[in-house]
Specification:
Blueprint lengths: L3 E5 L5 H10 L3 E5 L3 H8 L4 E2 L3 H7 L2 E4 L4 H9 L4 H4 L5 E4 L5 H12 L4 E4 L2 E2 L1 H5 L4 E6 L2 H12 L2 E7 L3 H29 L4 H8 L7 H9 L12 H17 L5 H18 L7 H7 L1 H5 L1
Parallel strand pairs: 1-2, 1-4, 2-3, 4-5, 5-6, 8-9
Antiparallel strand pairs: 7-8
Length: 295
């Protein structure tokens, strides 16, 4: 019998993730508040859901991939939300990037209704989502991890990082490092360009030094060096993730000074119209708006 999966949130990441599940012969019913988003996977074999509650009633497992903490809350507890259609013992997997503090609270509320929550946020952006090679940080009990593992393996490589909530925590730690490192990489390359040096030449030198890393060696050639920011991780999402990181830091009494600075950079970039392109587009902030920044 084919396992029936309900998938909530058919955005830039959700679409390729649904396609990976379909390729692995899972039956998928998709739901999104935007009808056009659902249509994008209907041609691949996904069924169209009428609401989250309706999807949950028919599914063995429900997966969500939505933008922010309030969106997950609405998926679970809002009108026509998961709890209106969920069954006792049902598995719910959230693959969004949300507050780890809220994640634990959501899990407690779901457990009171007999629903099991696993948090499984991903890294790799759309590049890896399309090939089913996402890195997946899973917060769950060992038994719940084993139950979710075959489904998650269709979309990437699941890694059990601890109890429920720890997947979301590790993802926020991960994105905190990306947020601050990206600013450093971009400022260095922008300085090279400002000084009149050949950008590709400098990039080649840097990849052979201690400064090298994934962002410099693999991300920059896809975006900055091609002047193409149309595919990747939206700048607006990093504003959200750094906000969650700062909130999480406060809950642990941890100062996050570098994160606070990087959030200001991404927020400014969004204000200049770069919110729906890859976050490395902050390069344009430094190179095309540098005179305004100097005033």
């Amino acid at each position: 019998m084919t396992l029936k999966i309900g998938f909530i949130g058919i955005g830039a990441m959700g679409k390729p993730m649904v396609r990976c599940l379909l390729k692995s012969q899972y039956g998928v019913t998709a739901y999104d508040t935007e009808a056009a988003a659902m249509k994008a996977v209907e041609g691949d074999g996904a069924r169209m859901g009428k609401s989250t509650a309706a999807v949950a009633r028919d599914a063995d497992v429900v997966v969500s991939m939505v933008p922010d903490t309030p969106d997950v809350e609405a998926v679970l507890f809002g009108r026509d939300g998961l709890l209106e259609g969920a069954k006792p013992g049902q598995l719910y997997i959230d693959m969004s990037t949300i507050s780890p503090v809220a994640s634990v609270e959501f899990a407690k509320k779901l457990a009171a209704k007999g629903v099991i929550m696993v948090d499984a946020p991903v890294t790799g952006s759309t590049f890896k989502a399309e090939t089913g090679e996402l890195n997946i940080f899973v917060g769950a009990s060992k038994d719940d991890f084993e139950r979710a593992k075959p489904i998650l393996s269709a979309m990437g490589v699941p890694q059990h990082v601890g109890e429920q909530g720890k997947g979301h925590l590790v993802k926020i730690i991960h994105n905190t490092i990306i947020a601050t490192t990206m600013v450093g990489v971009i400022e260095g390359l922008a300085l090279a360009k400002r000084s009149g040096m050949d950008l590709k030449f400098v990039h080649g030198l840097l990849t052979k030094g201690t400064a090298n890393g994934f962002l410099l060696e693999y991300w920059m050639p896809r975006t900055v060096l091609q002047n193409d920011y149309n595919k990747g991780f939206f700048t607006r999402h990093m504003v959200k993730d750094t906000r969650i990181a700062l909130e999480t830091g406060r809950s642990y009494g941890m100062p996050m000074m570098g994160t606070a600075t990087s959030q200001q950079v991404y927020a400014l970039a969004c204000n200049l119209g770069l919110e729906y392109v890859d976050l490395s587009s902050i390069f344009k902030l430094y190179t095309e708006n540098v005179d305004a920044l100097n005033k």
